[in-house]
Amino acid sequence: MTAWSILSRRGLFKIRVQYIHNKAHLQLRTYSLAGSGSESGASQDPPHSCISHDIDPGGIAEMRKAYKGTNEIFDVGDLVSKEPFKQFLSWFEEASKTDGIREANAMSLATSTKDGIPSVRMVLMKGIDDTGIYFYTNYLSQKAKELTENPNCSLMFYWEPLNRSLEKHFFNFRKLYLIWICIHFSQHVRVSGAAERVSEEESSKYFHSRPKASQIGACVSLQSQVISGRKVLDDRNEALTKKYLSDDVPIPKPDYWGGFKVIPLRFEFWQGQTNRLHDRIVFRKLQPNEEINSETTQEGSNGWVYERLMP
Ligand SMILES: Cc1cc2nc3c(=O)[nH]c(=O)nc-3n(C[C@H](O)[C@H](O)[C@H](O)COP(=O)(O)O)c2cc1C
């Protein structure tokens, strides 16, 4: 029998677990060792919805997460740069290092036909420089056709589980508290701009840097085309795998596969706050003949200006 269990049995120590969730900016777990008395901490209110949707599987209307504390706002003083690419890289690096985020480079890409019918899907950012953000795809796909007839598009990176844990120990004469504080961050970056194809040379270089199975996959899939069943894909994959994996020749990049660069005109950096007064800082290019309103808008570098939006 451990010392712990002997002391517990004799009532010298009590353990209490309190859990505050979504009530405040922080999530607290308090373990009180020894003594009695009532420690602070609220229990969770029973969920009640004032929304009258007929169907609400799993309590969607009540899903609500606490984000950062209000004393951790994201303000213009927190910008690491006065131009958006460096600011983006700073957030991106943090997201890439966060355990819960497997693909920080995953982004949604919204396109639209020339008649304005929109469409959105996920793609992976495969490069960024100070002129644009790169991804690769099939030029026969719906997204590529839409970008060809209408290059205007929008990207969204959403990094939800940016959690930071702090551990604190408090001791006083009668009690020892261990407190874990878990602060939830939620950030997104929205980019709007226009897409253009990258050169054949650049696409080919990236294509050949991919694992062979991915190169074969790109040859197999005529992305977004209708087929009669999975077998069509499997047969094509088998045939091309036999052809290319048996000998050591490089796999030629199909003409219909390559990259796009999205050239941004606007970046929005958004950081969630628990009280829903979220922080939004936008970088945009000045409109021709536009004069800066110095009360709201600040001059950045490389032709960018930045300003705060209401949430
Ligand atoms: C996380 C994730 C990343 C993806 N990355 C790419 C990508 O880089 N390129 C691509 O063509 N499709 C990618 N896809 C598949 C697309 O979302 C989409 O299904 C496909 O490109 C066809 O889209 P379209 O018919 O609108 O052109 C990805 C899907 C997911 C879920």
From TrEMBL:
PANTHER family for this protein: PYRIDOXINE-5'-PHOSPHATE OXIDASE, PYRIDOXINE-5-PHOSPHATE OXIDASE
EC number: 1.4.3.5
Protein keywords: Flavoprotein, FMN, Oxidoreductase
Task performed by this protein: Catalyzes the oxidation of either pyridoxine 5'-phosphate (PNP) or pyridoxamine 5'-phosphate (PMP) into pyridoxal 5'-phosphate (PLP).
Functional pathway: Cofactor metabolism; pyridoxal 5'-phosphate salvage; pyridoxal 5'-phosphate from pyridoxamine 5'-phosphate: step 1/1; Cofactor metabolism; pyridoxal 5'-phosphate salvage; pyridoxal 5'-phosphate from pyridoxine 5'-phosphate: step 1/1
Entry annotated with the keyword Oxidoreductase: yes
Domain Pyridoxine 5'-phosphate oxidase dimerisation C-terminal stretches: 257-311
Protein name stated in the entry: pyridoxal 5'-phosphate synthase
Xref: Pfam families: PNP_phzG_C, PNPOx_N
GO molecular function: FMN binding; pyridoxamine phosphate oxidase activity
Cofactor: FMN
Domain Pyridoxamine 5'-phosphate oxidase N-terminal: 100-238
Any GO BP annotation: pyridoxine biosynthetic process
Family (UniProt): Belongs to the pyridoxamine 5'-phosphate oxidase family.
Main EC class the enzyme belongs to: oxidoreductase
Entry-linked InterPro entries: Pyridox_Oxase (IPR000659), Pyridox_Oxase_CS (IPR019740), Pyridox_Oxase_N (IPR011576), Pyridoxamine_oxidase_dimer_C (IPR019576), Split_barrel_FMN-bd (IPR012349)
Lineage of source species: Eukaryota, Metazoa, Spiralia, Lophotrochozoa, Mollusca
